[in-house]
Amino acid sequence: DQQVKQNSPSLSVQEGRISILNCDYTNSMFDYFLWYKKYPAEGPTFLISISSIKDKNEDGRFTVFLNKSAKHLSLHIVPSQPGDSAVYFCAASAGGTSYGKLTFGQGTILTVHP
Amino acid sequence: GAVVSQHPSRVICKSGTSVKIECRSLDFQATTMFWYRQFPKQSLMLMATSNEGSKATYEQGVEKDKFLINHASLTLSTLTVTSAHPEDSSFYICSARGFGGAETQYFGPGTRLLVL
């Protein structure tokens, strides 16, 4: 039972354009969402997060949007740069006894072409 | 950001042997460490959560006698794959969380295990 899904295995974008990575979830108990970036042979690194009480969080070129009614979140990267090429994972966390446990999506490989 | 190391980065072993993987938080004290497993083209699956000085909490379907976790200090957790079999071949990643929220969870670079 995949509670967090990233339905696009890969995305290819031209440098300078917008990259939009999507993520859907099914568990309504999730109240905190995170995006991670992963390079080959390295562990995931935290990128940006959003709490369920918000619908948008922005940090520089990265913006995460949350649509709770649709159980959908997206990561926008503007403008995209070749150095952004990596695997992006969305993850979700619930409070209570599940605090800190992360449920990951399958990841989306982003390739930004010069 | 904080640094988490894993050792070894890659290990090949014969079926039936045990393999120990170390996870260390290098510049902070980790109240909680997590162990994940990733199959090719799949998401990271949480295996267990360990808190320093207490027994690990395993996720459903993960054999605790198969995957022994020890969290002896605030900077070190170990995962031992006992009597490894080819189906245990996978990518194992640990993460360490300090005194903060979910975003303070830092991941190690992972260990690639191949059981022949």
Walk me through the structure.
The complex is a heterodimer of chains A (114) and B (116). Chain A is an all-beta fold and 114 residues long. In chain A, a hairpin with a 2-residue loop joins β6 (56-59) and β7 (62-67). Chain A has strands at residues 4-5, 10-14, 19-25, 30-38, 45-51, 56-59, 62-67, 72-77, 86-94, 103-104, 108-113. Chain A has no helices and 11 strands. Chain B is mostly beta strands. In chain B, the strands form 2 sheets. In chain B, strands 2, 4, 5, 6, 9, 10 and 11 form a 7-stranded mixed beta sheet that branches. The termini of chain B are far apart. Chain B has strands at 4-7, 10-13, 19-25, 32-38, 44-51, 57-58, 67-73, 76-81, 90-97, 105-107, 111-115.
Query: How much of the polypeptide of chain A forms β-strand, as a percent range?
Result: over 45%
Overall 3D form of chain A = globular
Derived from helix and strand composition plus strand pairing, the structural class of chain B reads: mainly beta
* Most extensive interface: A-B, 24 and 26 residues
**Strand content bin of chain B:** over 45%
Ends apart, CA distance between termini of chain B: 36 Å
Helix and strand pattern of chain B: EEEEEEEEEEE
Radius of gyration of chain B: 13 Å
Low-confidence stretches of chain A: none
Based on DSSP secondary structure assignment, what is the total number of beta strands of chain B? 11
Largest sheet of chain A: 6 strands, mixed
Average pLDDT reading of chain B: 90
What is the strand and helix layout of this fold?
The complex is a heterodimer of chains A (114) and B (116).
Chain A: E1 4-5, E2 10-14, E3 19-25, E4 30-38, E5 45-51, E6 56-59, E7 62-67, E8 72-77, E9 86-94, E10 103-104, E11 108-113
Parallel strand pairs in A: 2-11
Antiparallel strand pairs in A: 1-3, 3-8, 4-5, 4-9, 6-7, 7-8, 9-10, 9-11
Chain B: E1 4-7, E2 10-13, E3 19-25, E4 32-38, E5 44-51, E6 57-58, E7 67-73, E8 76-81, E9 90-97, E10 105-107, E11 111-115
Parallel strand pairs in B: 2-11
Antiparallel strand pairs in B: 1-3, 3-8, 4-5, 4-9, 5-6, 7-8, 9-10, 9-11
